[in-house]
Amino acid sequence: MSVGLDVVQCVSSAASVSVSVGGVAVPCTGSDGTAGTLAVMHLDLSGGANVPAFDYAQAGELWGAAFCSVVALYMVSRGIGAVVDFVRRA
């Protein structure tokens, strides 16, 4: 038995109306009076095979690139500050 949630919704051309009839597809009527059908969807909440494994190598590459970007931004800002300070004192 899978852990999850059954969502039952009346599907028509109008705004959908939530209807629950024991998970069986039966005719329903939308808010504008047009005929529709019930759509049943099972949302699996077990988190089994649907969850991809965490890729530590890719995360490390991303963290390294972000760290290097911050250090480079710091160095550039410090260099620009030194030039501005030199111009201000001249």
What does the model show?
The protein is of the alpha+beta class and 90 residues long. The protein has 2 domains: 4-44, no CATH class; 55-90. The chain is 38% helix and 23% strand. The protein has 1 helix and 3 strands. The protein has one helix at 56-89, and strands at 4-11, 27-29, 35-44. The longest helix is centred in the last third of the chain and has 34 residues, at 56-89. The chain is elongated, with a radius of gyration of 29 Å. The N and C termini lie far apart (78 Å).
Characteristic terms for this protein:
alpha+beta, elongated, 90 residues
Instruction: Quickly give the structural class.
Output: alpha+beta
Average residue pLDDT = 76
- Anisotropy-based shape: elongated
Strand content: 15-25%
Order of helices and strands: EEEH
Head-to-tail CA distance between termini: 78 Å
The total beta strand count reads 3
> Can you summarize the main beta sheet?
3 strands, antiparallel
- The number of domains is 2
Low-confidence stretches: none
Question: Which bin fits the share of residues in helices?
Answer: 25-40%
- Largest sheet: spatial strand order: 1-3-2
Put simply, the count of helices is 1
Task: Using the CA coordinates, give the radius of gyration.
Answer: 29 Å
